[in-house]
Amino acid sequence: MTQPTYESVYRASVDDPEKFWLDAAAAVDWVTPPTRALDDSTAPIYRWFPDGELNTCVNAVDRHVAAGHGERTALIYDSAVLGIQEHISYAELQERVARFAGALAVQGVGKGDRVLLYMPMIAESVIAMLACARLGAVHSVVFGGFAPRELASRIDDSRPVAVVTASGGVEPKRRIEYLPAIEEALRSSEHAPSAVLVHERDGFETTVADARERAQGQGGPAWLSWAEAQDGVAPAEPVTVAATDPLYILYTSGTTGKPKGVVRDNGGHAVALSWSMANIYDVGAGDVMWTASDVGWVVGHSYIVYAPLLAGATTVVYEGKPVGTPDAGAFWQRVEEHGVKVLFTAPTALRAIRKADPEGDFVKQHDISSLQALFVAGERLDPETYHWAAKVLGVPVVDHWWQTETGWAICANPFGIEKLPIVAGSPTVPVPGFYVEILDPIGEPLGPGEEGNIAVRLPLPPGTLSTLWGNDERFVSSYLSAFPGYYATGDSGYIDENGYVFVMGRTDDVINVSGHRLSTGQMEQIVATHPDVAECAVIGVNDPLKGQRPSGYVVLKTGAQITQEQLREDLVSLVRSQIGPVADFKDVAVVEALPKTRSGKILRKTMRQMADGEQYTVPSTIEDHSVLEALHAVLAPKR
Ligand code: COA
Ligand code: AMP
User: Fold this and answer.
1) Reported pTM
2) Where does the UniProt annotation place the signal sequence (predicted)?
3) pLDDT surpassing 90 at residue 3
């Protein structure tokens, strides 16, 4: 039999998606196998495998044990910050997940109920996610770098029955206490979960007992340690769910302050991720895949937790940083030690390593011969970083482009099908299932090399978002209305004459700081609450390490006496306390006025181009040219 080519697989996926995805569905264990792939009866909202039933946890864990692979390592927890490691077999994972699922069930969590997770990078995070999946409950993981206010807004939107957390997270320079953050979030949220389950870790100040004592008589949730919650509890059996039932909600930044609750289903997700492991990453049972991200991001959901386990591979849960824990050799040491076949990280991590180790001396100290490819995503892999990494590692470095919404890659080099030539600056070609086109502002297709809005023709393949939590209208208006018949990605770019896609940046107020997706619109809303601020603009400017960083430009109210330094301090702490340290908001400049169109729209794009030293065209609708000239002096030196 001849090996299929990318071209032939891609063609099959767009010519007959029904057959293509039903065939792919055979990789999953179903309770009721689907007889159909696509349900288009409620288009433009589509559903995959409408009559299939399954349990995602069974597919990720139990079936490998049942197939006799219980002794195989499912998960390696490796903490660079604490110097500890734990290897967990599939059999042990099954036992621990079932036990924790039993504890959640006792707290009233059942099929369809939400559970909010606020967790650091420890094995228990994976266990808690899988436990929810086992019960048919819907988890919503919140990244540990977000502040209580962000937690509260997610609690109110998803209305969880229980919150699962740990004593805290360990950052290189400090410990982050999670329990006070949860307490604060619960004080400000309207919705009250009935229980908070805490995985207790040594070395944190606030204990479950403290939180319980403070909560006494307040009518709030029951506070329990994991040990207490699991005491005497029967392990939970898996609950069968419809393929179209939600597996998780993951909130992500949009253009407004209100995050979008991306909903992922069970069936399409399991099929798409299983397919991606074989066809994009070329990782299968017994291989080791290490995704150095965080379970709080989509990359972590898909390639730390679900996909490697669905494939029966070994996943690495890494608690540490690319540099400074303790040095720039942290990644290569672990590739050697765990025999990692595929490593997946963000370009910013590579830039941090390169800065600390430009010649790749740390790489030379380790045997990284197990490594077959390095995949990167989260932001564009700039050609300089690509060339550096490819040279020092001597393995293919594969950029691939995706979003929280899509859950897996829209464009990639499909290594499991065919290794296409790598072109620096491009995430290669559309992944089978994604019909990618470049559209002009009125939705007309553009030709090769012409930059425009990157859109994906509907229906999106399985595994992509099924809607926004409780808000079909927002799903349609945010993604499906700009170009009828298409999903608007919010990215701009072009496709060259060889079919390679180039993703150049967002068309909205979303920025990527160290691979973390943030909303400048949300930061503006927060900055505007300062009593001395008349108006402001926050834009993402290029940053040599972090890709982008938020930069705030503020017009003061007439008569405001505040010094620039005091203003900066106030605004930094305001954004930090309301969004969290992850916002990384540190640049503030006071300006006389902001450039606007005659209708009052701030020219953020022009400001960003100025700050990045790019050529910019001044819109004819500008209100006052002298404002732009004055700004040039403030913005241009920021390069
Ligand atoms: N919990 C609490 N706080 C966190 C956190 C977490 N999980 N993660 C980051 N933070 C805090 C940091 O402590 C830091 O706080 P500080 O301002 O008080 O120092 C702030 O958020 C910014 O952190 P970070 O973005 O990590 O920047 P950094 O300068 O500390 O490190 C890098 C720079 C490049 C090493 C780091 O950003 C990194 O490892 N990036 C890779 C990110 C990644 O893998 N993203 C993948 C998404 S696909
Ligand atoms: P997130 O939802 O956090 O994964 O962020 C998604 C956004 O990150 C995308 O819309 C892009 O703007 C950007 N992004 C992610 N991966 C890439 C990539 N490989 N190349 C260019 N941009 C990327």
Assistant:
1) 0.95
2) none
3) no
Contacts of the segment 467-473: beta carbons below 8 A, 24+ positions apart: 467/45, 467/263, 468/260, 468/261, 468/262, 468/263, 469/157, 469/158, 469/246, 469/249, 469/261, 469/262, 469/263, 470/157, 470/261, 471/261, 472/45
Contacts of 384 (CB under 8 A, 6+ apart): none
Residue nearest to atom 6 of ligand 1 (CA): 145
Task: Compute, in angstroms, the gap from residue 547 CA to the centroid of ligand 1.
Answer: 13
Q: What is the pLDDT of residues 26-39, one digit of tens each?
A: 999 999 999 999 99
Distance 606 CA to ligand 2 centre (A): 22
**What are the tens digits of pLDDT across the range 465-477?**
999 999 999 999 9
CA–CA separation, 405 vs 38, rounded Å?
19
**Ligand approaching nearest to the C-alpha of 377:** 2
Residue 376 alpha carbon to ligand 2 centre in Å: 10
Instruction: Ligand 1, residue 121: give the atom nearest the CA.
Output: 7
Tell whether the model's pLDDT for residue 619 goes beyond 90: no
* Helix, coil or strand: residue 246: strand
Q: How far is the CA of 378 from the centre of ligand 2 (A)?
A: 4
Average pLDDT, the chain: 95
